[in-house]
Amino acid sequence: MRLPRMITVTLAGLAVLLPVTACSSDEPAGGAAPQASESATPTEEPTPENLHPFTGQPADKMKPVLAVKIENTAAGKPQMGLKSADIVYVTQVEAGLTRLIAVFSSKIPAKIGPVRSARITDLHVAPMFGEPAFAYSGAQTKMLPFIAEASLHDVSDSRVPGAYYREPGRYAPYNLFARPKKLLAAARQASKAGDIGFTFGDPPAEGGVDRTSYTVKWPAARFTFRWSEDEKQWLIWQDGKKDVAAEGGQLGASTVVIQYTKTERSEFHDSNQSYTPLVKTVGKGSAIVLRDGKAYKARWERESEEGGTTFTTQSGEPMNFAPGQVWVALASRKPVTP
């Protein structure tokens, strides 16, 4: 399976970035072929090897990966730093609410937050990125041994306290923010960005339907993604309100993936005996991919925790994403509170 996927990435990149110039059989008067300008210099287009595997955008080199657990309720908004993320995962937590896993590599913001506590689902998503640096604020005591054995570099507030600070004007626990450069400096062995199964390029020729908005629901949270033709992005609303960044402007993504997964009760629960959901990201299932103002039915597959997640069309062709930031909503067609 790995070999075909790598070939797919290469072909998809060439399809977008190396378009062939259309030829014409018409010639100027006199039959002379047009002469190339002596001052014109050829320009090099990025090759697939120069594209970032998380965004499909040009990248000079692959940098270490940082994953950060971010608060996602009204009390923690507006969030800071998300605009710089390559990928943002929306995951269900206790009581049917959601939190985010923001993945950074190509761009590193100055600050990010609010940083919140880890969940068991995070430890199953992380191995897809090798051994990334993972920033979070605390975890249940009985989950600490799982974190210690997980495929990640722990840069939590207890391990790297100097990388965290309390943001003025906010109240605890929603005021803990981090400085990503300091986090990465404490995890110099963190894996660099690599293939995680995503492909970027032209959209499928068939299968897409025009869509101006798409809503995804969890038991106690609701996201709506609305296409903006002016911004060429899916702008984000949460619980009926614009999702605005602390830096200004509304959050949005070039591609949104609604990855339908199985969610079950884990062995962990909070002080109110509300069980922590475990989102199953290894296996296969259905998905909806939003790009360029269209919605595409797709399939996803992840063979192992160390492997990436591939997305294909219903006919089995690669489901290319639009270059840019990707949001992945880990959802369920019939969401329940474990």
From TrEMBL:
Segment forming the signal sequence: 1-22
Cited SUPFAM superfamilies: YerB-like
UniProt keyword Amino-acid biosynthesis present: no
InterPro entries: DUF3048_C, DUF3048_N, YerB-like_sf
Residue segments, region Disordered: 27-59
DUF3048 domain mapped to chain residues: 55-190, 216-328
Keyword presence, Methyltransferase: no
Keywords: Signal
Name used for this protein in its record: DUF3048 domain-containing protein
